[in-house]
Amino acid sequence: MEGTVERDPRYGGVAMALHWLTAAAILLMLASGIAMTRMEPGMTAFNLYQWHKALGITVLALTLIRILWRFTHRPPALPAAMPHWEKTGARLAHLGFYLLLLGLPLSGWLLVSVSPLNLPTSWFGLFLIPHLPAPAEMATRQMLNDWTEQAHVLAGWTLLALLVLHVGAALRHSLILRDHVVRSMLPRWIAAKAKD
Ligand code: HEM
Ligand code: HEM
Prior knowledge:
Layout: H1 13-36, H2 43-72, H3 84-114, E1 121-123, E2 127-129, H4 138-177, H5 188-195
Helix pairs in contact: 1-2, 2-3, 3-4
């Protein structure tokens, strides 16, 4: 049975803000990551790398806050009619997102910290982000750089695949099942319009 928009179970304002800010940042991170690694080296590429690193560290900070918030605030209940395996699938996908939202920035931070190039990372020109502790020996740095780079690239593509699945599930909930799941992540005024 469908509830009214007023009574629909929903995420709180902070959870929604963190979700949509992260979603926008992730789209920019995937686009900048793919673009910067495929363009001619030069100032534009260098600036895009700096921007990618700064926004990536911001995603890490937002994710740490979001995980703390998630542990202290219960998410809205999924529809009672949803089969058990689907609920488990949704929870696993969300857990996967949280792991990737931590793993991606951490692997990125690690890969620039061990890079033999030793380039500094600035947070949008405001302050320097220190490198994570790294061995001094060049051969070890190069080896760790290769590993962390591979992990970062693999995690990036895995996140993109999970995002396609997530958006597909959202479309199914709003267009086919027509339940409250998508509205639960939308502010009331947009949810009310979406219901019309
Ligand atoms: C949520 C955060 C992040 C996402 C979604 C992300 C995504 C990506 C993607 C999609 C690529 C291109 C992969 C490819 O070559 O196909 C990439 C490359 C790269 N990222 Fe990130 N990234 C994130 C955070 C970071 C952070 C925090 C740093 C550093 C502080 C960083 C540094 C790099 C570097 C240096 C490369 C180039 C690696 C190479 O040469 O192949 N990333 N990232
Ligand atoms: C890269 C971008 C995105 C990431 C990382 C992401 C991540 C997440 C995570 C982790 C949750 C679970 C929240 C919880 O802990 O309960 C969630 C829920 C949700 N997301 Fe996203 N999301 C992204 C983009 C989107 C987009 C583009 C849409 C809409 C088309 C969307 C719609 C939803 C909805 C409706 C929920 C609530 C689902 C439920 O209650 O089970 N998300 N998202």
